[in-house]
Amino acid sequence: MLKEWVRNQLEKDSSRLTPQREAVVDVLIANADDHLSAEDIFIHTKKLYPEIGLATVYRNLELLEKLNIIHRFDYGDGHSRYEIRLGDDDEHYHHHLICQKCGSIGEFKSDLLDTIEKRIAAETGFEVTDHCLRFFGICAQCREKVKS
Amino acid sequence: MLKEWVRNQLEKDSSRLTPQREAVVDVLIANADDHLSAEDIFIHTKKLYPEIGLATVYRNLELLEKLNIIHRFDYGDGHSRYEIRLGDDDEHYHHHLICQKCGSIGEFKSDLLDTIEKRIAAETGFEVTDHCLRFFGICAQCREKVKS
DNA sequence: ATGGGTGCAAAGGTTTTGCACTCCG
DNA sequence: CGGAGTGCAAAACCTTTGCACCCAT
Question: What is the pTM assigned to this prediction?
Fold first, then answer.
């Protein structure tokens, strides 16, 4: 189970799964598809653990990121967003579709980048360990609205 | 010539190529391959025009971005970076190789993404207008150093 | 005189840090 | 006890805004 895995990862680092930490993890699991910001996570977590402070949320997100439990990314809109890592390998192949009209974030899976990464290594000597691919455009819903 | 094109773009927007603005553009042209941050640009521009203020640099970068003269991107390291647009279409196909050891930013050209973008449109209805692809890893120089 | 442009200082928003305190092993 | 974890407030950080002033047309 996902939470057991999280607990194990924490224990390996001699960190505990405190109530606050658990609340943050619960929020991340419950919103696994939603790309929450730190503020969003703070607000949600407050429902489960009202006394929690924003700094604690940030410190826990930092720790969870360090332990590779969550993934953090930036859209250049001023704040980071966080997503729990589910399948590991899967992670590497899932990209984001960011709608410039409504701001929604969809996903798309593809392993086509493997080809590029091999070419980069062969042609430039740069060893790729990770990537970040985001597509910008108009989502299906917004395109529908424009038509009507 | 590049600067004439810039001047034209500005005039179309009824904006002037002021000395400050020109200094910023000169810096961007001289460092076309360097992915400078706003602060970097400010420091460089000060050499050409010592009285310039940081706010002016930001305002000009904002304007230049609006007019599609420069491209702005975020590496999630806390600050934006800027790059002058040279070949337009070329732009779409050039990606960044970010070294996690030394922080250097290389480039790699590839149009392989066209295939993915067509599949996205076909499979999800999301219309892609732009993308951002960054690779993280270890650059050739740093790999060389580790060996020795 | 009118609108664009500027410098400075102040404000803005997100994230980090310092510090005293608590809790569990 | 000792290290990990916490809440609060203050600080840090990059970026934007307000405002008075300047310059060219």
Answer: 0.81
